[in-house]
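Why does residue order matter? Because the sequence determines the fold. Keep that principle in mind as you read this record.
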Amino acid sequence: MRNAGIGQIIGVAVGVCGVCSIVVSTTAVLLKPQQELNKENDRKKYVLAAAGIIENAKKAPRDSAGLRELFGQIDTRLINVDTGEVVEEDGDAALSFDVAKAAKEGPTSRTLDPKIDKAKIRRMSTVQRVYLKKDAQENIERFILPIYGKGLWGPMYGFLALDADGETIEHLSYYDHIETPGLGGEVDSKDFKQAWPGLVAYNEAGQPQIDVTKGQIPKDNDHEVASLSGATITSNGVEAMVNFWLSDNGYGKFIKKHKKPAA
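Structure:
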């Protein structure tokens, strides 16, 4: 049997690579819907934790049916951040709206002035998704607000929850980031999360007042939280994005319109 020539070897190699490429591409296409569903389910788990329905995302049901049943306690809405009004009340339609895509293109997309872009997101959609936990009388018990902004290495995505009064923070958690483990990655830590409930989001003038700062926090201080050790840039990013999304450039107008009236 004659030895294969170099051309034949190259031909076989190219053929094998081509077949492998087709298999990989086909697999990626077939798996994409399931991957997207998994991402959506993960976000729902964090919403449920932010709503106080489950202790944390890890305590959520693993089966889709159980997760869907729990998530039935959440109202999902689309709002216009410029007016504070709800523009879509259908939960399924609100869930299917691609906020990231809308921020990049289309009539709801806009570029932010660097002077107000504290979260360093550059562009955003004027239509945003919010989640609401309501009581039996359809009164809002808790606002669950998606937030995102720049950390040290890249974007950070999380959820901020406010009480019905629209001022008291009940929860803060991050579900996606690439911060340094043991440093900025501690935004996921139990200690950092536990520092947020009870903080007051706004000052007497109605302006966001959250301060992520170094050092010991006085016990009577209701708007400061200790920064992450060795992670100044990440801590500054958390402070900036929380205050941005609480402002009238974010969810501020919606919160003011829909919060529980002061007694």
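The chain has two domains: 8-70, 73-258.
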